[in-house]
Design brief:
With about 220 residues, this protein is α/β, with parallel strands linked by helices. It contains eleven helices and eight strands.
């Protein structure tokens, strides 16, 4: 399973990249705003800065919601760097745009997916990635992991090559569950990735090993 980091914070991206386990980055307009990145020029420059840190796919989201606007913005984003993946919302014009991009070899990430039917449409339109938001479903007492399972089943039934990018991940167990289900990618903030490290028996075991070494070598 690939690990993407879901942030526009360059320090967090560097920290995750330094771990050596990072395969890409996802961003969205809210994450850009959180970092104070505003204005088209600054946003474009920020995408390039991210691409210069990580050797992997970087999702850059269009703002337009009409077909022509999505195509126009998407082509500009795709030209910024070879690692850019154009992120397109799950709307009618978005589906048409996904088809346009896939026919021209522009890679895409269909975002804001909350149902298996939406994921089926994204795959049929040729999306490179589909992003089901599991945390946001859990937040409203729906079953986010069940959706990932449904999408996995449908894609395997028909051999769709669209990769399942499990998004809106809230904690380490979400990552582990996504891996068990067979999601192709998990994207999340740095914290859940670092939470995977934690086990009290690792800490106590290491403390014991170091104490015993000290006893024998003092
Ligand atoms: C996916 O690409 C989105 O940026 C993201 O995972 C949304 O997560 P949130 O629900 O934590 O905002």
């Amino acid at each position: 399973m690939k690990f993407f980091i879901d942030t526009a914070n360059l320090e967090e991206i560097k920290e995750a990249n330094d771990l050596g386990v990072l395969d890409g980055v996802t961003t969205n307009p809210s994450l850009m705003a959180k970092e104070g990145i505003t204005g088209t020029d600054n946003i474009m420059k920020h995408y390039v800065a991210i691409c210069n840190i990580v050797d992997g796919d970087v999702s850059a989201e269009v703002i337009a919601t009409d077909y022509e606007g999505i195509i126009r913005e998407g082509m500009i984003l795709a030209e910024l760097h070879e690692n850019i993946v154009v992120k397109v919302p799950m709307i009618k014009d978005g589906i048409k745009a996904l088809k346009y991009f896939s026919e021209r070899g522009v890679r895409t990430n269909c975002t804001l997916v909350f149902s298996a039917g939406q994921a089926l449409l994204a795959a049929k339109a040729g999306a490179t990635y589909v992003s089901p938001f599991l945390g946001r479903l859990d937040d409203i007492s729906a079953d986010g992991l069940a959706l990932i399972e449904e999408i996995r089943l449908i894609y395997d039934n028909y051999g769709y090559e669209t990769q399942i990018l499990a998004a809106s991940i809230r904690h380490a167990m979400h990552i582990v569950d996504c891996a068990k289900i067979g999601a192709d990618v998990a994207t999340c903030p740095l914290k859940p990735i670092l939470q995977l490290l934690n086990h009290p028996l690792t800490d106590s075991g290491l403390a014991q090993f170091l104490a015993d070494y000290k006893k024998g070598n003092s």
